[in-house]
Specification:
single chain; 2 domains; MetI-like fold; 12 helices; mainly alpha; 297 residues
């Protein structure tokens, strides 16, 4: 009995110490989370204060009028169109490659081959965007000149590992019993993958694609090498170099004209809004996909 009484204070002190450490760590984690959110909030508020007044209908429908001495409204319609074309073609290139790569990794590849390809995707995901831009410049631009297609190819390289990883993760969530049931009925492996497994992962693929689009929509470095020598006219042809929103922000930030600064901040605010909408869409699609698979969280 005396031994137990001697141990009680020690255990009580240890319990109090563990609770205190737990509260301290919880407080640190909470502060870190609020700091991350606070940085985003400060950035959005700062950009909105500087560029909110310049967001109007002309920003999306008018082209730039450099060195103009009139009060004719100008905008960045050519940059928005160019970004739409470049990112659109990049998505068209990256989605098939990324999805098929993930299918091969998850469904067909042997362990060693899958490890090597997964490692290559991780390395590709970590390659700086400016390195991708230099690579595409040497591969395409030096021989064929700048074009929106060259820019799309550069952005697609950045998108492929994101889409492949997202698709691979959602493929891993499909129950193995689903595949076994299909194979047990005599269905071939590739038809099982395309007809049974893949339809259950559409939500995850769209989620990965949405996040990848949000990731590359604001990239500047690859486009400096591939689609930066442009005019101020509105163009849709992917065979020509097209203006883009990130490059216009960079260009206008160095302009001496305060109106250009305002439009640069406005374009930055539009980009932030696009990323926000894309992220919310991706989270909604992720939640919907998990519910369809019977998962929670």
């Amino acid at each position: 009995m005396s031994a137990r009484r001697d141990l009680l204070p020690v255990n009580a002190d240890g319990l109090r110490r563990r609770r205190a450490v737990n509260r301290v760590m919880e407080a640190i984690a909470t502060l870190a989370a609020f700091a991350a959110v606070g940085v985003l909030a400060i950035m959005v508020i700062s950009v909105a204060r500087r560029g909110g007044a310049a967001i109007n209908f002309s920003l999306f429908t008018k082209t730039p009028h450099p060195f103009s001495f009139t009060n004719e409204p100008s905008g960045l319609a050519n940059a928005f169109v160019g970004t739409f074309v470049i990112v659109g073609f990049a998505t068209a290139i990256a989605v098939p490659v990324g999805v098929l790569s993930a299918i091969y990794l998850a469904e067909f590849a042997r362990a060693r081959v899958a490890f090597a390809i997964a490692l290559a995707l991780d390395v590709l995901n970590g390659v700086p965007a400016i390195v991708v831009g230099i690579f595409v410049f040497a591969l395409i631009v030096l021989h064929h000149g700048q074009s929106a297609l060259a820019g799309s190819f550069a952005l697609s390289i950045l998108m492929i590992p994101l889409i492949a990883r997202a698709t691979q993760e959602v493929l891993a969530l499909v129950p193995q019993t689903t595949r076994e049931a299909s194979l047990g009925l005599g269905v071939s492996r590739w038809r099982t993958t395309l007809g049974v497994v893949l339809p259950q992962t559409v939500g995850g693929i769209v989620t990965g694609t949405t996040l990848a689009v949000a990731r590359v929509a604001g990239e500047t470095a690859p486009l400096l090498f591939t689609s930066s020598i442009v005019g101020d006219k509105l163009q849709w042809s992917p065979h020509q170099a097209l203006a883009s929103v990130p490059l216009k922000i960079f260009e206008y930030s160095e302009s001496p004209d305060p109106k250009d600064h305002a439009q640069a901040w406005a374009a930055a605010l539009v980009l932030i809004g696009f990323v926000l909408v894309a992220s919310l869409t991706a989270r909604a699609l992720t939640a919907r996909s998990r519910r369809r698979m019977g998962l929670h969280r």
